[in-house]
Sequence to fold (780 residues):
Amino acid sequence: MNFDDTPEEAAFRAEARDWLARTAPKFVTPGPDEADDAREAAYIRRAKAWQAAKAEGGYAAITWPKEFGGRGGRPIEQVIYSQEERRYSVPSGPFQIGLGMCVPTVMTWGDDAARKRFVGPAVRGEEIWCQLFSEPAAGSDLAGIRTRSEKKGDEWIVNGQKVWTSGAHYSDWGILVTRSDPSQPKHKGLTFFYLDMKSPGVEVRPIQQIWGGANFNEVYFNDVRIPDSQRFGAPGEGWKVALTMLMHERLAISAGQVTTDVKDFFELAGEIELETGPALENAAVREQIADWYVRSEGLKFTTYRALTALSRGETPGPEGSIGKVVSAPQLQALGTLGMDLGDMAGGLTEEDVAPLKAAFQRAYLFAPGLRIAGGTDEILRNIVAERVLGLPPDIRVDKSVAFNELPVGR
Amino acid sequence: MNLDFSDDQKMLKDQARKVLSEKSPPGANRAVLEGTAPYDAKLWAQVGELGWLGCAIPEAYGGLGLGYLELCVIAEELGRAIAPVPVSSSIYLAAEAILRLGTEEQKQAHLPRLAAGEVVGTLALAEGVGVPRPERLETRLEGGRLTGRKIAVPDGLGAGLAVVAAREGQGVSIALVDLSEKGVGRAAERSIDPSRKSATLTFEGARAERLGPAGEGWAELQAVLSRAAVLVAFEQVGGADACLAIARDYALSRYAFGRLIGSFQAIKHKLADMYTHTELARSNAYYAAWALSTDAPELPLAAASARVSASHAFDYAAKEMLQTLGGMGITWEADGHLYLRRAAGLRLLLGAPRGWKERLVRELERRNAA
Ligand SMILES: Cc1cc2nc3c(=O)[nH]c(=O)nc-3n(C[C@H](O)[C@H](O)[C@H](O)COP(=O)(O)OP(=O)(O)OC[C@H]3O[C@@H](n4cnc5c(N)ncnc54)[C@H](O)[C@@H]3O)c2cc1C
Fold:
């Protein structure tokens, strides 16, 4: 056991670090202010410029084949690069969905022409993608979507509504799953497309989130025309394509795992006075710190175990799937107790008053979304139970029933 | 990056698992639990012959000199098998204390016998219910004679050699006592995990040698406990894994309401949580194994993390395994309680998690100050 890079890994790290040191500082940016359109637009511009610089340097898509503008590198190199990049607060958020899930889906399901057309511009930061999956009546149960697509000649006419679409308001392209045949059971009769977000009939309406930003959207489709050439998979076989995408989503989520940092709480506890003296001397506070620390460390070393496998060129084990179920609720708890320590004034979000510029209050409002996005806590537990432990799937009442005969509620 | 065991270590682990699944089925644990023998003597002899006991003891002292990573993989399998043998007391505690603190002569005298399993060692610390503190110890070492009383001595019923914390002058020393000496009394105790027979030891001027410098034993003792915590964490991870396997098997064979109970989400999510806690504990234990095997300065923090994490994982897994078994789990006859008992035994063996959390935060404070 050791935590060292192999000589090749060390060489790659040194090279990446050097490149970052020369390039990244120019792009360091405070987070996007989603509540302020002008600031968000500026943020997106910087993100595109940063992505272009990465492509130029050969770090934009490390594991992708060279012919697609990638580097043809190994997964461990992607991880090493990400570790190094994390030292800089560079704007890479807007590309995560596109490069993490949409474009890999294009690479798997698109023809040569589509690959040629889309992969390069995404890698170079010229185009941003969004994922048009969830609908008002279909989230965890994605196959319950209702947005209709009907074939007319060489085109499909799409009508319906998507929701929670992150970044739709600044995206150029979208990945879309629709229902083409409601008389089939729900997993059949789905058809999968990509489309230009500027297509006539597409209407994007931002939705404000509980933390004040408006990063996700409702997206309406009114007689939107999509050429048949923009279909992935056969008509009615869209579920298969969606599964590819969900697989990439899970990988992207376990790779970009939010690690809740107990250090911040530790620091806070050192500053706050309780009735018994410094919070850091309070037994309940100390016990809580230990519990969180142990879980964060457990996640960190679980990641190290996966990296070990990657470093050997093996596939990581299933233990990676526990990440978000542990980290998101912990961030929520951290936010809560962080505010509790502030007692009567603990709810203040004034950045000059609230410790760590109101990080705990932000965590309190941000963590609930983490517990939902990309698979809820409950769905992720199901996945561990079924895929890792081999327990039976949930009993379903909707599998063989025609979609348009299923009961509907809110 | 390499946070994994080597192929050789994994082979050793597989071999240990095979041997133990045959020689230490739950019935072996039960036989000791229900009987009066201090441990499974046949299994103990086997474990000695296989060289497991001397795995991390240098060849110069009769061991195999393989290392701690090897001992960790064996510990995980001993834990999985809830093996009714005193490895933790004899090797992780007594042999470690002698290895760290003993003179050359003491090492030569005791380690080969411990490595071969000819004698069982233990560590005697507690004198009452509650947290042992140096200033409260009443056992005294004076002029090579030990006087006092220790309770809850792990595997004390079968031990022949004890490492004993005792006051000497103003400080605490560590005494080494041959338990066949005159002036040593021993009484069996009933405890939560009778598959390991603890005992009360009384010393009335029993002859004892000192291990390490006079009056400075307390800090040394903490270091020994830290090292043992890593190995016990592996036993706990093994135990937790075993509980998950039992719960899973049952969930995949028991029907209720016309379906497998493993198809109920309440059961599925419970098992997913068991898996999650166990994997977190495993990852913490791997890191601590690295720290132990390299004698890294991070060891105290890593060991405390591993101990807290693994104690929680085994506790959770044992309880929820029992819950999954329904009424069956509550019977003496079913094996569930053997794990529940072992979980409590290991959780308390080196002191309860509460105290280890306190250590952990103290280490964090120290690190922060530095
Ligand atoms: C910040 C954020 C960003 C998002 N970005 C995108 C995006 O870019 N594109 C996109 O398509 N979607 C996006 N989503 C949507 C997200 O994928 C869904 O919100 C999520 O899948 C849950 O679906 P839902 O909201 O319909 O909740 P529901 O599925 O209705 O769930 C409601 C509750 O029921 C529980 N539940 C549902 N089914 C089960 C079950 N089988 N067993 C047990 N419990 C169950 C859930 O766990 C949850 O607690 C985003 C969501 C968030 C919060």
